[in-house]
Design goal:
Layout lengths: L26 E7 L3 H15 L3 E3 L8 E6 L6 H21 L5 E5 H7 L1 H6 L5 E3 L7 H9 L4 E3 L16 H6 L3 E5 L1 E2 L10 H4 L4 E2 L2 H13 L4 E5 L7 E3 L5 E3 H8 L7 E5 L8 H9 L6 E3 L7 H6 L6 H14 L4 E8 L6 H14 L3 E6 L17 H25 L4 E9 L5 E5 L5 E5 L8 E9 L4 E5 L12
Parallel strand pairs: 1-2, 1-3, 3-4, 4-5, 5-6, 7-10, 10-13, 14-15, 15-16, 19-21
Antiparallel strand pairs: 8-9, 11-12, 17-18, 17-20, 18-19, 20-21
Helix pairs in contact: 9-10, 10-12, 13-14
Bound molecules: 5'-deoxyadenosine and iron/sulfur cluster (SF4).
Length: 481
């Protein structure tokens, strides 16, 4: 959060700064987003609800009337970073006060939920604190701030926040591009012993089918081609289907696949325990369900998996991967790993390395264990020394990067569909997305953003692929405006 006081571009994780067509004489909001894709989605929805209040988005704190920091609490240093960002905002607010200008400062997201009142106590610059379940009350909270109150809104809402959030204007959706997130599920009941999510996001809730379908249809009408369904435990989603039966995520995907205009579906993040047969079959039956699955295992050691309360063994995970690969042979896997969980021995760590060798990942995220206050892991004995964690992380990451690079090299010479997302950095270039999520750089041949074209991969960089358009490509739809 160190770039809060300067004119800043969104970082990789945020990608949230959005521009609706400028409304004259409106106030401006700068939303800085940290953390996961769900925070990106939440920031967009907060921006949408503020649009109705006359706020237009800006990409710098310097010309904002309202700065909202959407925080992440998943790993350490989140609150230290927040307080140093707030220190910089305090200077900005003081400088503004001398010019007779106001600056309202809000803190949202999981640190807001976890620390609540403590934030307003420690940081007088903060006018407003909203948790992930209460951000639909942002307009009312701001009205109270204007009356001179300092507002902390972190009580879990009884009402469904999604029922109270305005949909984005069609222009706003278009400005966000041809891919979009839709939160379908929130919270978690799994209680992995390292994880703060069940405490900050609360217990599992699933949005109703009709609400999700309506949101997806509106996105499609605005030109969105690819939907990524989000949830902390997205494959635990369930709800009453259009046929009156209880649906799981698999059935929901079959339904969303029927929406005209939507050409690609993805979902993230899944728990191995919730991969049911219908969901696996959806990978077999729906070509538009992209062959890429993020399925965290966290560790390869059964002893550590038990201590983590993961509710699956290494062998369960491997069997599951086999079933998924039998349903869709070209599926690529990504995962999350934690090294240095309390009590992890060299042998446990070796089991993690082994499961990585057994599965082979196309991409992965790996972290050193960091004790989160209030989680059972934090109170366990035998915490692993930092230097040991560093060493294990380095070994794991070098294996994972080798696998990622090997996966990308294996795509050279192959043809694939690429969804064009934006103009490239160099004139004449465009950037699209492969089915396996890598950016693909191609030369322009009259294609437009939103087109899906056939591309042959000719080379790979560290994170992106270089492709050439295959001339038998049939463009299957564009967005306009
Ligand atoms: N320490 C390290 N990594 C963590 N994660 C969640 N909590 C912790 C923690 N306390 C990682 C897990 C999870 C990902 C989102 O973040 O790997 O899947
Ligand atoms: Fe956290 Fe585990 Fe729930 Fe994932 S499944 S959000 S890691 S508690």
């Amino acid at each position: 959060m160190d770039d809060i006081s300067i004119t800043s571009k969104p970082d990789e994780a945020s990608g949230t700064l959005t521009h609706s067509p400028a409304l004259p004489n409106t106030r401006k909001v700068y939303v800085k987003t940290y953390g996961c894709q769900m925070n990106v989605y939440d920031s967009q929805r907060m921006t949408d609800s503020l649009a109705a209040e006359g706020y237009s988005p800006t990409d710098t704190a310097d010309d904002a009337d309202l700065v909202l920091i959407n925080t992440c609490h998943i790993r350490e240093k989140a609150s230290e970073k927040l307080y140093s960002a707030l220190g910089r905002l305090r200077k900005m607010k003081d400088a503004r006060a001398k010019e007779g200008r106001e600056l309202t400062v809000g803190v949202a997201g999981c640190v807001a939920q976890a620390e609540g009142d403590e934030i307003t106590r420690r940081a007088p610059v903060v006018d407003l604190v909203v948790g992930p379940q209460t951000y639909h009350r942002l307009p009312q909270a701001l009205a109270r701030v204007r009356q001179g109150e300092r507002v902390v809104e972190t009580e879990y809402a009884i009402e469904d926040k999604f029922d109270h959030l305005p949909a984005p204007a069609i222009e706003q959706t278009r400005s966000r591009g041809v891919t979009a997130f839709v939160t379908v599920q929130e919270g978690c009941d799994k209680f992995c012993t390292f994880c703060v999510v069940p405490y900050t996001r609360g217990s599992e809730i699933s949005r109703p089918v009709a609400q999700i379908v309506r949101e997806a249809e509106k996105l499609a009408e605005a030109g969105v081609r690819e939907l990524t369904l989000l949830g902390q435990n997205v494959n635990a989603w369930h709800g009453e289907g259009a046929d009156g039966r209880e649906w799981g995520l698999g059935e929901l995907l079959y339904r969303l696949a029927e929406i005209p205009g939507i050409a690609r579906l993805r979902y993230v993040t899944s728990h191995p325990r919730d991969m049911d047969d219908t969901l696996i079959n959806a990978h077999r039956d729906l070509p538009m369900l992209m062959p890429y699955l993020h399925l965290p295992v966290q560790s390869g050691s059964d002893r550590i998996l038990k201590a983590m309360n993961r509710k699956h063994s290494g062998a369960d995970y491997l069997r599951l991967i086999d079933r998924i690969r039998s349903a869709r042979s070209d599926i690529a896997l990504s995962g999350d790993f934690i090294v240095g969980f309390p009590g992890e021995t060299e042998e446990d760590f070796e089991a993690t390395m082994q499961i990585v060798r057994d599965v082979t990942y196309a991409a992965a995220y790996s972290f050193k264990y960091s004790p989160r206050p209030g989680t059972p892991g934090a109170d366990m004995e035998n915490h692993v020394e930092e230097a040991v964690k560093d060493d294990r992380l380095q070994r794991l990451q070098s294996l994972l990067s080798e696998q990622q690079y090997a996966f990308q090299r294996s795509l050279i010479g192959k043809s694939m569909d690429v969804l064009i997302e934006k103009a490239g950095r160099l004139p004449g270039q465009m950037v699209g997305r492969s089915p396996w999520l890598q950016p693909v750089i191609i030369d322009v041949h009259g294609d437009r953003i939103g087109d899906i074209i056939h591309v042959r991969i000719i080379d790979t960089g560290t994170n992106s692929l270089i492709g050439v358009r295959e001339m038998n490509s049939a463009s299957n739809g564009t967005i306009t405006g």
